[in-house]
Design goal:
With about 475 residues, the protein is an alpha+beta fold. It is about 55% helix and about 10% strand.
């Protein structure tokens, strides 16, 4: 081992010092039972990078049943939810480990789940890892560094290579191609030319991977320090055509006559600017602590309705009428296809739908009614909408950008003023459902719901008017409704 490598290894093990005693005990337990154990992958890589790693992934020659027996004696608790993949988890005090039998996973090219096969030794396990920087290991308990594929050198050069041929690695698990984009976004690494070539040639094979696995990898990419780099790689290699085709279509609608801005580049800029507006990760909710998945998804998807709504006018102009409405539906459809939860789908699509609302009021003074509706329609998404709207300004015209900034500053000030005066977040009709039913003599149902919505609209337009005035408004609406003619 060279002096330089020896120094790097000492630094890495120093960063692992808090958990090494426990890992040493665990390594001794496996050795006593006649098995090998090594810390592998992410925690080793992150130790060299000086990054904090919350995962302690280990690999062993022991079969799952034997692993479980050893862990049960070592730890306070064990679990085997990953048994079918050879993984057994354990906890000792505050330390959690996952130990996986040497693996040799592969896809059969037909199904969406990997075929699990156990390997025979550490070198066989490492060569089947995704990238060389994740194919480094520390044998336990003696801390012998194992790096058969030059991972440390690639780590120093900040490049992503595969331990074996890239096409073989991606054939074993096509999701690794998305993982390359994620690591580029997360770690700032460059993808080796042969890896990029394989990603491009094998992009369609991503289609055999389950939507849930793609979603999880995409979320990690979007939450990375530089998701724009990862997104560009997805689009450039054709992977986005498989899992997020709407993003690729944005690039395909570039207008060579420059009658409108480049939607693709604009969306990437909006994402970058939205990230810059996130609050610190430990900040209060109103600061939108970063990284915020909902805000970031809304930023990259906010204009996906433009390609479908683009129209060239006779005068040479270009329009995108109602692209926010179309885009909201498209965003919801794509996120559902990726198996995102209902709350995320609802929040992102609502932000896409509302992202133009500010511009609809022009640059003049907002009425109290308009402010109330803006706040009420945004609901709990208001602070994210503030940031998305500000991020959506990508003009290079400084005067125009400054005017938009001042106008939005004014709107936020108006919102704060009305919130203090009227508690806008709690806006409700001044008559509740029971009172409406009693006044009109009707039972709960669609008609009562329409009456409630009418009074809510009155409240938003006129502000607090008192119960007596609300009762008069309700009766006037009841008398004018079309159904009243048949009463």
């Amino acid at each position: 081992m060279s002096a330089n490598l020896d120094a790097l290894l000492r630094q890495a093990t120093g960063r692992l010092a808090p958990v090494l005693p426990l890992l040493g005990d665990l390594g001794a337990a496996f050795t006593a039972a006649g098995h090998e154990l090594a810390l592998v992958g992410g925690p080793v890589r992150d130790a060299f990078l000086g990054r904090e790693s919350h995962d302690l992934d280990l690999t062993t020659s022991a079969m799952p049943d034997e692993t479980e027996r050893i862990l049960a004696a070592w730890g306070d608790a064990t679990w085997d939810m990953g048994r079918e993949f050879g993984t057994i988890g354990a906890r000792r005090g505050a330390t959690v480990v996952e130990v996986t039998t040497y693996r040799a996973d592969a896809y059969d090219g037909q199904t969406r789940k990997p075929v699990v096969a156990f390997g025979e030794n550490l070198d066989d396990d490492l060569v089947r890892r995704d990238f060389t920087v994740n194919a480094m290991a520390l044998r336990l308990p003696d801390l012998q560094f194992v790096d058969p594929h030059g991972g440390l050198e690639d780590l120093a050069g900040r490049r992503l290579r595969t331990p074996g041929a890239a096409e073989v690695s991606f054939g074993d698990d096509p999701l690794r191609m998305m993982r390359a984009a994620r690591f580029a976004a997360q770690l700032g690494f460059d993808v080796a030319p042969e890896v990029r070539t394989a990603m491009t040639e094998m992009a369609t094979s991503l289609g055999i991977v389950s939507a849930e696995r793609i979603r999880d990898e995409f979320s990690k990419l979007m939450l990375a320090a530089d998701p724009v780099t990862g997104l560009r790689l997805l689009v450039d290699t054709g992977l986005a055509d498989v899992m997020l085709p709407e993003l690729s279509v944005m690039r395909e609608t570039v207008d060579e006559h420059r009658r409108h801005k480049d939607v693709y580049e604009h969306s990437l800029t909006v994402l970058r600017q939205a990230i810059a507006l996130e609050g610190p990760h430990d900040g209060p909710p109103e600061s939108v602590p970063g990284p915020d998945l909902v805000l970031r998804l809304a930023a990259i998807l906010h204009d996906i309705g433009k390609p479908a709504t683009r129209r060239f006018e006779p005068d040479g102009g270009v329009t995108f009428h109602h692209h926010e409405v179309v885009g909201a539906k498209m965003a919801a459809k794509r996120l559902r296809a990726l198996r995102y939860d209902k709350e995320t789908v609802k929040a992102v699509s609502r932000l896409v739908e509302l992202h133009l609302r500010f511009h609809g009021y022009g640059s003049g003074e907002w009425t109290d009614s308009a402010v109330r509706r803006y706040v009420t329609d945004a609901g709990p998404l208001l602070t994210r909408l503030h940031r998305l709207t500000r991020a959506d300004c990508t003009t290079r015209n400084r005067r125009k950008a400054e005017t938009l900034r001042r106008t939005y500053d004014s709107l936020e000030a108006r919102i704060e003023t009305l919130m203090d005066a009227e508690e806008l977040k709690k806006v409700r009709p001044e008559l509740d459902g029971n009172e409406i039913g009693e006044i009109l003599g009707i039972s709960p149902g669609p008609v009562l719901g329409r009456a409630y919505k009418h009074l809510l609209s009155v409240r938003l337009d006129q502000g607090p008017i008192g119960k007596d005035a609300a009762r008069e408004e309700l009766l006037a609406w009841w008398a004018k409704r079309p159904e009243s003619a048949a009463d």
